[in-house]
Amino acid sequence: MSESIRIRPRPRVAATVWPPGSKSITNRALVAAALAQGESVLVGALHSDDTTAMRGCLASLGVIVEMRANGWVVAGTGGRFAAPSSVLDAGASGTTARFVTALASLANGPATVTGTARMRQRPISELVDAINALGGRAVALGRGGCPPVRVQPARLRGGGVVLDASRSSQFASAIMLVAPYAAADVHIQFEDGVVVSRPYLTTTIEVMTAFGASAALTDEPGVVVRNAPTYRPRRYAIEPDASAAVYAWMAAAATGGRMTVQGMAPTSTQADLMVLDVLEAMGCQVIRDADGITVAGGDLVGVDVDMVDAPDGAMAIAVLAALASGDTTVRGLGTLRLKETDRIAALATELRKLGASVEAGPDVMRISPGPLSGATIDTYDDHRIAMAFAVAGLTIDGVVINDPGCVSKTWPGFFDELESWGSQPE
């Protein structure tokens, strides 16, 4: 892909799209299938940098994943992994780094989990502490409790653990996925009752349950996982990625158009579906029917919204706020500072380039629209920065996206898809 792409503006964007498979569900299903005893088939799995990282780590642990015409075929090992002969490289994938750190306890030899330079700055000490509290043996070797992580083989004894999930729900999901192989039931309680991005835990439970495990949320709040290693192989369909669908719906909102996303179950628990409620509050119409979920754009107004449970989707809302009338306040964003880049700082910098006024705090952004004009957007090797500002370029002339190839992390064909979206007739 070229070093930069200029976005072609167009009014009233209209299209029907089927986004790629969910990254979050794909990586959870890969882990569950690897833990099962026997062959599973994953249909609709996402092929991207993040899922490639997960497949690579699983291969190093002795799990064979074949990409066939009928889906990805995963030869599960029943929770008995090979001793890796090299480091387990998670790349820039947070789910891979956290999930594989927990999985490595089930290997037949020591393992080291690492990743990109940015991944080696992202926290993992809370997960390491929880693994050790449950009888594992892991140590974060990086500065400030960050990767690399060295994991020694050890069967988790189970029991209760208090987990700090204030910076990532992935720490809880990682423990949950391996917990059926503990010697006793695992009860996770969240420190101070706090867990960010809570809907992702529901998604983890749904995938685990589909593969035969037993897990449930509790009232503390917390999670309980039964110690029956009953992951069973199966054929499993992965629904489209709500985090990707957000950019299609954002396009309708930004241009006053109409975008339909197909393949999304009405009962989906994906966290970023919360964006639909925010779009309605901003003046859009949301239609759910047999054809999919449609957003029709309207006159956008500013909102005051807490998006602690959907921080990825919050990025699209922050960019849309520059196109609205009135100020917008987006709260609950503290985890964005710990992602692929400091997303709060990046959003503020790039929105100001377009002409918006932005105030940014530790976990909040206030965006005031102003006279907007095109600008060259730096993407910080962050796929969501690239996609959100590219959609803004549908209505702001002169938007250029640097390093567009970074979208391969979750949606490799995004810019071709974006270019294919046409305009509604007058």
Task: Describe this structure as you would to a colleague.
The chain is an alpha/beta fold and 426 residues long. Helix content is 30%, strand content 25%. The strands form six sheets. Strands 16-17-15-2-24 form a five-stranded mixed sheet, covered by helices on one side. Strand 16 (285-289) and strand 17 (292-296) form a beta hairpin. It is globular, with a radius of gyration of 21 Å. The model has no long low-confidence stretch (mean pLDDT 96).
- The overall pLDDT, averaged over residues, is 96
Instruction: Name the strands of the widest sheet in spatial order.
Output: 16-17-15-2-24
Globular, elongated, flat, extended or rod-shaped: what is the shape? globular
> Quick one: biggest sheet?
5 strands, mixed
Structural class designation:
alpha/beta
Number of helices: 12
Binned strand content? 15-25%
Rg over CA atoms: 21 Å
Q: Using DSSP, what is the number of strands? A: 24
Regions with little confidence, pLDDT below 50 for 5+ residues: none
N-C termini distance: 34 Å
Q: Tell me the helix content.
A: 25-40%
Q: Characteristics of this structure?
A:
426 residues, 4-stranded mixed β-sheet, 5-stranded mixed β-sheet, 24 strands, alpha/beta
What can be said about this structure in brief?
The protein has a five-stranded mixed beta sheet with strand order 16-17-15-2-24, covered by helices on one side. The chain has 426 residues and is an alpha/beta fold.
Topology:
Elements: E1 4-6, E2 13-17, H1 23-35, E3 37-43, H2 49-60, E4 64-68, E5 71-77, E6 88-89, H3 94-103, E7 111-114, H4 125-133, E8 137-140, E9 149-152, E10 159-165, H5 170-178, E11 186-195, H6 199-210, E12 215-218, E13 222-225, E14 235-237, H7 242-255, E15 258-261, H8 274-282, E16 285-289, E17 292-296, E18 304-306, H9 311-321, E19 328-331, H10 343-354, E20 357-360, E21 364-368, E22 376-377, H11 383-392, E23 400-402, H12 414-420, E24 422-423
Parallel strand pairs: 2-15, 3-14, 6-7, 10-11, 18-19, 22-23
Antiparallel strand pairs: 1-23, 2-24, 3-5, 4-5, 7-9, 8-9, 11-13, 12-13, 15-17, 16-17, 19-21, 20-21
Helix pairs in contact: 1-2, 1-3, 1-6, 2-3, 3-5, 4-5, 5-6, 7-9, 7-11, 9-11
